Sequence to fold (311 residues):
Amino acid sequence: MSDARDAAPAVAGPRLLTGSPIAAEIRAGLTEDFAAFKERWGRAPTLAIVLVGADAPSAVYLQQILRTCAKVGVEGRLVEIGAEVTPDAVCEEIERLNADPEVAGIIVQMPLPAHIPLRTVIDSIDPAKDIDGIHPRNAGLLSLGYDGFLPATAQASVEILKRSGIEIAGKRVVVIGRSNVVGKPAALLLMREHGTVTVLHSKTRDLGHHTRDAEILIVAAGRPGLVTGEMLSPGVVVVDVGINVVPDGQGGEKLVGDVDFESARDVVGAITPVPGGVGPLTNALLLSHLLRAATDQAERAARQTAAEVAK
Ligand code: NAP
Fold:
């Protein structure tokens, strides 16, 4: 005799908000736009990636972005600087890139070696080439609600909601993390989308008290398993920005987010997977910023040339 459970349909899992199809769509548009740029200006724009000191996780990420550059028709230029370098020498290298008309965008791979002050390096990037929005000018524009370059990961965490048709306006949105590159700009962008935003951090007491109130939860703490199912309310939409390398239990390693997927999956309404959620979208958005930077710079240079010819 068959058990009633045998006949029951498989329990559907949560809705997975995958970034890859959205990223592929953006990349397809960018491939056409970069081809048109090359046609108009006679060259492909260059993205310079500054890497100070060798760092294995960075190397994996850099190969990924260089591959994406190649896919859409952008010149990727890896600028490798030895870890023993002085802060002045790093800034001089960035100033050379600022002055190079072929370089449309500059990103500096984090973390920097401990003796290189982050603030000094960030300040030396030309805001017009700061396509990951880390310069104080772009951060200021974001906080004032004006157009500037947005930090791509923060933008991706909001964009994945918007492009998945999830309404933000009026919702109780909780962000875990307040870093300048992810948590803080994500909170500002979510406010711009009219969410009612609460920001949690390492000194927040009783994280679960706040997360259980969330209708949308963005997690960007860099702590695997920080958020478990019992900290969530049924139906919550979760964007897991965390990328953590942990042992896979078979002698190897695997990537996980900050949310304990197994305990969360039966509670959430929708969730971004790790890998394959926010990550793929980040690179695609970064290259869309590069297109905008390259076009602005090329048009400005053409106007200057025309003005000089007219003199
Ligand atoms: P970060 O600079 O280390 O900032 C982490 C933030 O989380 C801080 O604000 C910290 O609070 C908070 N935090 C840490 N432990 C906490 C805890 N137990 N409870 C509550 N809050 C806690 O990291 P990040 O650069 O923002 O990156 C965050 C995560 O996103 C990392 O896993 C990173 O790998 C990932 N990431 C992903 C992408 C992507 O494309 N998907 C890109 C960049 C980064 P305090 O401010 O109090 O220290």
Summary: The chain is about 45% helix and 15% strand.
